[in-house]
Amino acid sequence: MSIKDNLTAIKQKLPREVTLVAVSKTKPNEAILEAYEAGQRVFGENKIQEMLQKWETLPKDIEWHMIGHVQRNKVKYMGEYVSLIHGVDSFRLLAEINKQAKKHDRVISCLLQMHIAEEETKFGLDNTELKTIIDSEEFAALENIKIEGLMGMATFTKDERQIRKEFAYLKSIFDSLKQELPHISVLSMGMSGDYTIAMEEGSTMVRIGSSIFGARNYS
Q1: For 2-54, what is each residue's pLDDT tens digit?
Q2: What DSSP character marks residue 62?
Q3: Nearest CA-CA partner of 24 in 61, 60, 64
Q4: What gap in Å lies between CA 187 and CA 40, rounded to an integer?
């Protein structure tokens, strides 16, 4: 099946309120353009330099989402154009994003990444760290970022009960955060292998790559 056919098949499964982020990391511009011509406008990258090169050469109405782990010293390379940063897992990173957004007279949308998986390799905040950030005066003073919601990745396992439990836990954190930040609306959880479970547990944004573009190119 073509990229267009894959996109059509996936979009038919998504409720209207769920945003599809097409994960285009490692994919060439031709593949992204094929998805773009099929109507896709939101793309996710996990390396800032690669995303910058694509932003410079591809259509300017594409929304670029940074979905990978972000190093603070690289934020300056995407401050001008990034639409949403998914993996914000520290106050220091938030402060750097705010600083770079200010330089470009922008407000950059961010998701706070929660650690919900049993794997130690996944990044993210725990509940206490989340509360410490949200309740701080320093956070309240950041005028050039906007927290849109939360992001999390489930354990890489075939055990659907565990995946469901982790997504349900993230949704419960999202619901309680909404009491403090009533404007938040994005719960980014679910990838090619588990997005149907994620949507059943309340996801509003799914990150799908291989089911659209085929297997990843490791270069």
Answers
A1: 999 999 999 999 999 999 999 999 999 999 999 999 999 999 999 999 999 99
A2: P
A3: 64
A4: 20
- Give the tens place of pLDDT for each residue, 40-72: 999 999 999 999 999 999 999 999 999 999 999
Instruction: Count Cβ atoms within 10 A of the Cβ of residue 105 and give its class: 0-12 exposed, 13-18 middle, 19 or more buried.
Output: exposed
Q: Are strands 84-88 and 63-66 parallel, antiparallel or unpaired?
A: parallel
Alpha helices (H) along 42-112: 48-57, 91-103
Residue 5: in which H helix or E strand, if any?
Answer: helix 3-13
**Residues 95, 90: Cα–Cα separation, whole Å:** 9
Q: Which domains does the chain have, with CATH numbers?
A: 3-213 (3.20.20.10)
Phi-psi sector, 118: left (phi>0), alpha (psi -120 to 50), beta: alpha
Residue 190's closest CA among 217, 170, 213?
A: 170
Residue pointed to by tokens 């996109």: 7
What pLDDT is stored for residue 217 in this prediction?
53
User: 88: part of which helix (H) or strand (E)?
Assistant: strand 84-88
C-alpha distances in Å from residue 26, one per residue of 44, 111, 206, 214 = 11, 23, 18, 11
What mean pLDDT is reported for the chain? 95
Q: Where is 212: in which H helix or E strand? A: helix 210-213
What's the confidence (pLDDT) of residue 218?
Answer: 47
- With 60 as the cut, is the pLDDT of residue 90 above it? yes
